[in-house]
Each structure stands twice: as structure tokens, then as C-alpha cells.
Amino acid sequence: MVVRHKGRENAAVGDLSWFLAIIVALIFALNPIANSAESSRPSEYELKAAFLYNFVKFTEWPPEQIAKSGEPFVIGVLGKDPFGAALDKVVEGETVYKKPILTKRFSRLEDAANSHVLFISSSEGNNLPAILRALDNHSILTVSEIENFAQRGGVINLKKENERIVFEINIDAARNAGLTMNAQLLKLAKIVKGRP
Fold first, then answer.
1. Distance from C-alpha of 121 to C-alpha of 36, rounded to nearest angstrom
2. What confidence score (pLDDT) does residue 121 get?
3. Which residues are within 8 A (CB) of 18 and not within 5 positions of it... i.e. 6 or more apart?
4. Cβ atoms within 10 Å of 116's Cβ, excluding its own
5. Which of 27, 55, 156, 193 could form a disulfide with 143 if both were Cys (CB 3.0 to 4.6 A apart)?
6. 174 within a domain of the structure (yes/no)
7. Please, what is the average pLDDT of the chain?
């Protein structure tokens, strides 16, 4: 796994860029509800949708995974979708690698195998070992909120701690998937190593 490090003179610029990217993504995600008098704070899943989008921006996929021309960049949700329309709103009109970002929902793992990012819903907790085995050696950024997801071999685990959304990254799982995580992203995460 390659981790990009900035020199001392560029560290402040990198930190500022990361901060601005988070703010822009959150503003974009919250724009539909910002005009609503009924809701002044984003929901947990609106925030998690913004996190998913930012994970895409700070992760690199192998060139052969991205090279398929004409195909969209797919963020999939496997199992019961906790996001509702929030995920669609966050990525609406966005592109990555000059590809439009498309969200898809899957009830079967076989249909999700062409995703670039796959959020594995808590409804799939009992099937997690089989899911991760089936995705082994695929260049898919797996994300979930299933307890101990990163320790069990997933790439990113979203957690809620003290009313904040935090995340863990399993760098061995990322390496196994051929993914490169940006150094700025790694600084904000709790790093988990190993696979069961």
C-alpha cells in the first residue's frame, strides 16, 4: 500500500484541503435540509453519507479497476438501506475519475461484485464472514457499521462515539483490496491491522 506524505511545507496546505473537502461535502449533503424549518441538524445517516463520499475522494483504486470506460463509479448498499435518499443527494451530479457516481442497492452479494464502494448494512451481520470471503481480492472499498467490522476484515468501520461519527481503517484489508488510502484520511482514523 502506498501512502502519500506531504513535505513539512505542504502539511498545512494538505490539512486545510482536507478540512475544506469535509466542509464542502457536508454543506452539499445538508443543503436540502438547510432550507427546512423542521430540521436544523443533519441526521446520523446524512452525516454517514457525507463520510462515504469523502472516503471515495481520499482513496485510490487500481488503474485496471477504473479503466473500464463508459461505466459509472458505483457506491453500493448491500442489505437493508439505512440511508434513504441521503446517499443519493450527497453524490448527485458528482464525478470521480471522470466517471459519474451512481448509487445502487443490492439484496444479493453476486449483484454487488462490480461496486467500487460497498456499504454492508447491519442487516447482513450474520453473513459478514461469507461476504468478506467472497469479496477477497476484489478492489472494493468495504464500509460498514457492523460491530468490529474493521477487526473482522472490512476496510472502514463507521462508529458513533459520544454523539460523533468516527471511523476505523483496517490498512491490511485496504492493501489486500489494492486500495491506496490518503495519508490525511489515515491521520483522522483509528488504524486497525490484521485479518482474522
1. 28
2. 98
3. 58, 184, 185, 188
4. 25
5. 156
6. yes
7. 83
Distance between CA atoms of 87 and 53, rounded to whole angstroms?
8
Note the pLDDT tens digit of each residue in 21-46. 554 445 444 444 444 444 568 899 99
- CATH code assigned at 180: 3.40.50.2300
- The Cα–Cα gap between 143 and 141 comes to 6
**Residue 91, domain member (yes or no):** yes
1 part of a folded domain = no
Task: Record the pTM.
Answer: 0.80
Residue 133 lies in a domain: yes
Residue-level pLDDT at 158: 97
Beta strands in the chain (DSSP E): 59-60, 73-78, 95-96, 99-106, 117-120, 141-144, 156-161, 164-170, 180-181, 190-192
Number of domains in the chain: 1
pLDDT of residue 99 exceeding 90, the answer is: yes
The answer to whether 117 touches 94, Cβ cutoff 8 Å, is: no
**CA distance to 55, 137, 178, 180, per residue, from 63 (Å):** 18, 15, 10, 11
Q: Which domain holds residue 100?
A: 8-192
- DSSP tag of 90: H
Whether 160 shows a pLDDT value over 70: the answer reads yes
CB atoms within 10 A of CB 192: 22
For residues 28 and 24, what is the distance between their CA atoms, to the nearest angstrom? Answer: 6
